[in-house]
């Protein structure tokens, strides 16, 4: 049963869109983080390893940046696989949200930033339709993360 606001057709097209970018999870995940750190330098402050890196080139080469880019994409991939099952979806989003809220103390605004950059990259690489079919998914993810943050007292 789905408490999600996505229809079965929307889930299918979102999966198709995601697959295109997930094929190169490490490179695309890295590209998303590098763009985030470059355009929103405050986001670097959460990562002790990345703080001193100023050039996009240096970030692209960094094993830590690449590793985290891949991790972000893997987490989203898990969510995308469970879009049709809200219980399974929340089973992935909830611990992730709790960890970022309580241990890492990441401002939840940053989730919207990273999602918007993923959508930008999709549009640049695969066009507006690809972006449009994934937009609802990023809204779901951000909404659920924000709810978890509220529960944790943010």
Automatic annotation (TrEMBL):
<keyword id="KW-0963">Cytoplasm</keyword>
<feature type="domain" description="Globin">
    <location>
        <begin position="5"/>
        <end position="150"/>
    </location>
</feature>
<dbReference type="Pfam" id="PF00042">
    <property type="entry name" value="Globin"/>
</dbReference>
<dbReference type="InterPro" id="IPR013314">
    <property type="entry name" value="Globin_lamprey/hagfish"/>
</dbReference>
<keyword id="KW-0560">Oxidoreductase</keyword>
<keyword id="KW-0349">Heme</keyword>
<dbReference type="GO" id="GO:0019825">
    <property type="term" value="F:oxygen binding"/>
</dbReference>
<keyword id="KW-0561">Oxygen transport</keyword>
<comment type="function">
    <text>Monomeric heme protein which primary function is to store oxygen and facilitate its diffusion within muscle tissues. Reversibly binds oxygen through a pentacoordinated heme iron and enables its timely and efficient release as needed during periods of heightened demand. Depending on the oxidative conditions of tissues and cells, and in addition to its ability to bind oxygen, it also has a nitrite reductase activity whereby it regulates the production of bioactive nitric oxide.</text>
</comment>
<dbReference type="GO" id="GO:0004784">
    <property type="term" value="F:superoxide dismutase activity"/>
</dbReference>
<dbReference type="InterPro" id="IPR002335">
    <property type="entry name" value="Myoglobin"/>
</dbReference>
<dbReference type="InterPro" id="IPR009050">
    <property type="entry name" value="Globin-like_sf"/>
</dbReference>
<comment type="similarity">
    <text>Belongs to the globin family.</text>
</comment>
<dbReference type="GO" id="GO:0016528">
    <property type="term" value="C:sarcoplasm"/>
</dbReference>
<dbReference type="GO" id="GO:0020037">
    <property type="term" value="F:heme binding"/>
</dbReference>
<keyword id="KW-0813">Transport</keyword>
<dbReference type="InterPro" id="IPR012292">
    <property type="entry name" value="Globin/Proto"/>
</dbReference>
<dbReference type="InterPro" id="IPR000971">
    <property type="entry name" value="Globin"/>
</dbReference>
<dbReference type="GO" id="GO:0005506">
    <property type="term" value="F:iron ion binding"/>
</dbReference>
<keyword id="KW-0514">Muscle protein</keyword>
<protein>
    <recommendedName>
        <fullName>Myoglobin</fullName>
    </recommendedName>
</protein>
<keyword id="KW-0408">Iron</keyword>
<keyword id="KW-0479">Metal-binding</keyword>
<dbReference type="GO" id="GO:0005344">
    <property type="term" value="F:oxygen carrier activity"/>
</dbReference>
<comment type="function">
    <text>Involved in oxygen transport from the lung to the various peripheral tissues.</text>
</comment>
